[in-house]
Amino acid sequence: MYNMCNLNVSELKFDERGLLPAITQDAATLRVLMLAYMNREALERTLSGGKMCYFSRSRKQLWLKGETSGHFQYVETAYYDCDADALLFLVRQEGAACHTGEFSCFHRPSGAYEPPFDILDGLYKIITDRRDNPVSGSYTNYLFAKGLDKILKKVGEEAAEVIIAGKNLDKAEITAETADLIYHLNAALVAAGVRWDDVRAELSRRHEKK
What we know:
Elements: E1 20-26, E2 32-38, H1 40-49, E3 53-56, E4 61-64, E5 73-80, E6 87-93, H2 119-132, H3 139-146, H4 148-168, H5 171-192, H6 196-209
Parallel strand pairs: 1-6
Antiparallel strand pairs: 1-2, 3-4, 5-6
Helix pairs in contact: 2-5, 4-5
């Protein structure tokens, strides 16, 4: 359920074109996804429907994000700045925010900086690539060839191994078995079409309820 208690439309200051810049962030990771613009109608549709709707300056028409691609942005909460002339939305992103297929429009760092590597997302991408582009002798391909039941069976087996390691209070064993569990859990997520960002968003929602 999205929260609009912090947004008072009557206080907003639209520019001479009737627009406001709207910054959109992923609610789970706080990563900036995109910058677009809204007129009053786009904002009202966003507030009433719970999906991000922008105003396309090039096409000069309303633009419901995801209407064509299916990559909707579901609003979690909204804010405006101290001057009341800019908007900030925290959303749950379905698929990619960028038309290039990248999760964020801001995916091209300036200079030599490289964004921090996320091992969970990295492993997820590798497993997805193995599934889509099989490699001879790949254990990942073996799992997917056997099917979802085999993957889920391995998740259960590895979870049991973590329990045993925990009972033994063996730090090295717990670490190794947890890594095995996370690998097979990643495979299960890929098979089900669930992303780590979906899991992060769910954890974020649970955190907000506490």
